[in-house]
Amino acid sequence: MTRIDRPRVTAVLGPTNTGKTHLAIERMCAHSSGMIGFPLRLLAREVYDRVVAIKGPDRVALITGEERIVPPDARWFLCTAESMPLQRDVAFVALDEAQLGADAERGHVFTDRLLRARGREETMILGSEALRPVLRALIPDVEIVERPRFSTLSYAGAKKLSRLPRRSAIVAFSAEEVYATAEMLRRLRGGAAVVMGALSPRTRNAQVAMFQAGEVDYLVATDAIGMGLNLDVGHVAFAGLSKFDGQRRRRLTVAEMAQIAGRAGRHQRDGTFGGLVAEGPDSFEPEEVAAIEAHRFPRLDWLYWREGQPDLSSVDALIASLTTRPDHERLRAAPEAIDLKVLKRLVEDPAIRASARGGNVSRLWAACGIPDFAKLGLDPHARFVARVFGYLAQGHIPHQWFADEVARLDRTEGDVETIAGRIAAIRSWAYIAQRPDWLADPQAWAARTLAIEERLSDALHASLTQRFVDKRTTALAKKIGGGLGALPVEIDAEGEVTIDTHAIGRLEGFRFVVAPDANAADKRLLLATAEKRLAGERRRRAQTLVASDDGAFALTHAGEIAADRLIVARLARGPSLARPQIALDGALDCLDPAVRQAVATRLRTWLDAAIARALPAVAALADAARAKEAGPALRSVAGAMEAGAGFAARLPLREAVEALTPDNRRWLRRHGVTVGALDLFDPRLLKAGAQVWRRALLAAAGTPAVDALPPPGAVTLPRGAPGATPASGYRAFGAQAVRIDLVERVARAAHDAREKAGKVPFAPDATLAVSIGLHAATVARLMAELGFRPVAPVEGIARYVWQGRPRARRVAPTPDNAFAALAGWGRA
């Protein structure tokens, strides 16, 4: 046995719904490369899709027994534990559900990965708190981090199948039990989705999507859902508490019960669990309930182990290394797995033993690793493996034999059991196609077997839906037809509206949304019922909104007002830019006029205060523009700057600026206004937070606005762009636009250089221009606008003299062009 302990091995331990897997994904994505091993192909695929959304399909790999997606530039690998390419050097490695090292069938695989799989910079082991003592013994320098459950898991007692709450998952422990339970739910409650570990990811995702979309309210599953699959389940009901583990039928351990029950609740939403019977062997004992609720389970004192790097020099050496006993007190020899049983059975054949020499020893062992997906049993599976190895010993598997066997499975007719059997069989051929040197054209056959599996998966989903989902008119429609007034309407904390335990829709803020599975005829009745019975709840929500503090409100980038992430109003053109009107969202039309007015008044109070906080200069300028005591010069300047949301060009305001009194100028400085050489502006408004409010106010006033503030410095204008105006925060100089505060820095530097040079021509500070990113042509245009005339250069360096600023020209205002040149920058 070889164990490699490296620095930075962290064990993240805790019950279900603690965010362990999410944490591992975040840590992996933060590294330059990484790998995570999962217990299920379904879970590996689910996380692969999440990481692809973050990193892109060209950088992420999926490796399972039956599927291999490895782009040339792949840096992040999502794998089943058995398929982890340990030879790859990656910065981060994680192993999920590491407590499966105590599993009799696959435990040795997880123990091997726990001991040998290491990241170059960080290794993370995820699992149950029960792992703590064995981890301390096997990896002495491991750092253990505890993660508490996000939500409460509590026992809800036993409930009959007909009385289970909506969004329940019923767990059974055989395909026969799953199908029988789903059939009963079809008759009692209209239908159920089915999830089993043997399903392909495509079928599983289709069934879960049906459940998540509310097409069915119940899900029937095997214990595969306990391995980290994310489902929106509120209650988990156990159809039984015993299962066949491959050798005998036994009662679930408390840890296994908790792993499954823990699927109830999601993130911070509490969950419940229970059974279908109150008494007998399939009911919970009080001690089990207490342990599950408190997340207290017996500690694991040992894990199963088998040599992970067996000796392949000969068949006898291979078997000897695979049956070697561990040399650590915390490890136990793994029970004989199916691959070792098949190996021992095959080498009893003298012909196979004679063929298994040299490099064929590794090929024999690889062939024995073909999983028994179809659950044929030892003898039939061993005969299949023997035939595969017979071909491999001679080179490759024959094209015709492989093609004939695959073609035999490419049929979608049949019932649920028949199609499920074909999917299990095609998985064996998909597994073979993933081996790089077993077929003459493995990539083509991998694509072919995957396509067949997807077709069979679609057929299985259709067959499951047809068999276990009844789309006939529900009892709800009959009860609604019997009289609306007598129906009890209830609204839960999530806004779900039910009538007599039947969901009819959701109250999203003030808008009622009919359940998506209602037909056209039902929708009219549901709407009528909701409108009559939800007035009180809407009034209560409006009163809560009116009583909310300012922190409950926010302005969106689209100029909408949100209250606790719900859009309740939008800004509209008002008497001035700093005083926009508030238009309540149409969903609030259902409120009484007095209540609507109270909401509008509360929003007005918040909006005025928010504008004063976010754009203090704009609010002050709006007041000054209308104050008689301000004087005509300050009123003119303030009005122009308010219209530009805090920015205005100086040239059109030259006479008013020159007429400003010292008190006027002190007032502007006190309110943060810079009177620049070319523009008047408040530099605070160039920050991202203020830009949200500027864009919203300008849009409400009918002025187009940029989607986002362009980057600091100089920006190259798009070809054919009409230019930028100070209202955008930028000023155009030929092919470039420069932020107005940086224009002012250049202007001050130029005048400082002019004063220092006296009447002698001077050269502007080239370092400043380069730091901003100005082109030579841009500098020349900027200097001209500042009032400087170029003279003959010296040694190639441009030089200037002062000639005075140009006079203002009367130009018709074009407020709607303020952001025209920059409109595309935020989307670039």
**Can you summarize the main beta sheet?**
8 strands, mixed
Decide which structural class fits the backbone.
alpha/beta
Q: DSSP strand (E) fraction? A: 15-25%
Distance from N terminus to C terminus (CA atoms, Å) equals 56 Å
The tally of beta strands, per DSSP, is 34
Contiguous runs where pLDDT drops below 50 for at least 5 residues: 1-5, 471-486, 809-828
Q: How much helicity do the residues have?
A: 25-40%
Largest beta sheet: what is the strand line-up?
4-3-5-2-6-7-1-8
Question: Measured on Cα atoms, how large is the radius of gyration?
Answer: 36 Å
Instruction: Give the helix tally.
Output: 28
What's the overall geometry?
globular
Summarize the structure.
This protein has 828 residues and is of the alpha/beta class. 40% of the residues lie in helices and 17% in strands. It folds into six domains: 9-146, P-loop containing nucleotide triphosphate hydrolases (Rossmann fold, 3-Layer(aba) Sandwich); 153-294, Rossmann fold; 337-468, no CATH class; 475-533, no CATH class; 544-614, no CATH class; 617-827, no CATH class.
Keywords:
8-stranded mixed sheet; 6-stranded parallel sheet; globular; disordered N terminus; disordered C terminus
Show the helix and strand layout.
Blueprint: E1 9-13, H1 20-30, E2 34-38, H2 41-55, E3 60-63, E4 68-69, E5 76-80, E6 92-95, H3 107-116, E7 122-127, H4 132-138, E8 143-146, E9 153-155, E10 168-171, H5 175-189, E11 193-195, H6 201-212, E12 218-221, E13 235-238, E14 242-244, E15 249-251, H7 254-261, E16 271-275, H8 286-294, E17 303-305, H9 315-322, E18 331-333, H10 338-346, H11 350-355, H12 360-368, H13 378-392, H14 399-409, H15 416-433, H16 442-468, H17 475-481, E19 489-491, E20 496-499, E21 502-508, E22 511-514, H18 520-533, H19 535-547, E23 553-555, E24 560-563, E25 566-576, E26 579-584, H20 593-614, H21 616-625, H22 632-643, E27 647-649, H23 654-658, H24 662-670, E28 674-675, E29 679-681, H25 688-700, E30 714-716, E31 730-733, E32 736-739, H26 740-757, H27 766-772, H28 776-786, E33 788-794, E34 797-802
Parallel strand pairs: 1-7, 1-8, 2-5, 2-6, 3-5, 6-7, 9-16, 10-12, 10-13, 11-12, 13-16, 17-18
Antiparallel strand pairs: 3-4, 14-15, 19-20, 20-21, 21-22, 23-24, 24-25, 25-26, 27-29, 28-29, 30-32, 31-32, 33-34
Helix pairs in contact: 6-16, 7-8, 10-13, 12-13, 14-15, 15-16, 19-20, 20-21, 21-22
